[in-house]
Amino acid sequence: MKKVKILVGLFVLSCFLPLANVNAVDGILGIFGVTIPKSSSDWYYSGTQKKSQVSYQYYNSGGAIDTIGTEIAIHGRTWDGENNSGWLTFPKNQYVTWGEGNLSNLNFDTGTYGLDISRIKSGIFNVTHSGNWYLNKNKLPASSGIK
Predict the structure, then answer these.
(1) For residue 1, what pLDDT is reported?
(2) What are phi and psi of 76, to 5 degrees?
(3) Are 21 and 34 a contacting pair, CB within 8 Å?
(4) CB 123 within 8 A of CB 47
(5) Residue 108 and residue 124: Cα distance in Å, rounded?
(6) Within 13 Å of residue 113, how many CA atoms lie on the same side as its CB?
(7) Is the CATH code 2.60.40 the one for domain 21-141?
(8) For residue range 40-83, what is the model confidence (pLDDT) as tens digits?
(9) Is 61 exposed, middle or buried (0-12, 13-18, 19+ CB in 10 A)?
(10) Centroid of chain to Cα 139
(11) CA distance 27 to 133
């Protein structure tokens, strides 16, 4: 009977885990299966995250797919509560940064930041997206190739 209760408990827990679509660790925000609106003038908002290292911020997209399975181009911008960075295109499986001459370095300092993600062009369907936002450069995996 004890094993049955444990199995039922694990089953119930496994039913609720997919409902959590954002996973934050200091300096990294994992975004899993979030919905990006069909209009390019609307966006997904990450909520605020703490940045504890003075460094560039990076993003690695796992891709964005619409309802019929078409890969959709997306981009994102960070903000510090007062100012937005420029929009940066998120190519699938590439590490991109708002720093190093690409766009505004306003997201370089420590502090609290948010992330907006949007379609580049409006479409008929919403988009499902997963990716990782690296607020602190020291959290990048060695496989990123960024030193």
Answers:
(1) 56
(2) -145, 160
(3) yes
(4) no
(5) 36
(6) 32
(7) no
(8) 998 899 888 998 998 889 999 999 999 999 999 999 999 888 88
(9) buried
(10) 14
(11) 8
Report pTM.
0.79
Tens-digit pLDDT profile for residues 54-65: 888 999 999 999
- What distance in Å separates the CA atoms of residue 86 and residue 21, rounded to the nearest whole number? 25
Q: H or E stretch including 30? A: strand 28-36
Distance CA 97, CA 78 (A): 11
H helix intervals, the chain: 2-16
For 94, the token pair is: 């590439």
3-state secondary structure of 29: strand
Place of tokens 């200091």: 26
Place 122 in a pLDDT band, splitting at 50, 70 and 90. very high
Which amino acid is residue 95, in one-letter code? Answer: Y
Spell out the domain ranges in the chain: 21-141
Cα separation, 133 vs 62, whole angstroms: 11
Q: At a CB cut-off of 8 Å and minimum separation 6, what does 47 contact?
A: 22, 114
Q: What is the mean pLDDT of residues 117-135?
A: 95
Of 52, 100, 106, nearest to 77 by C-alpha is: 106
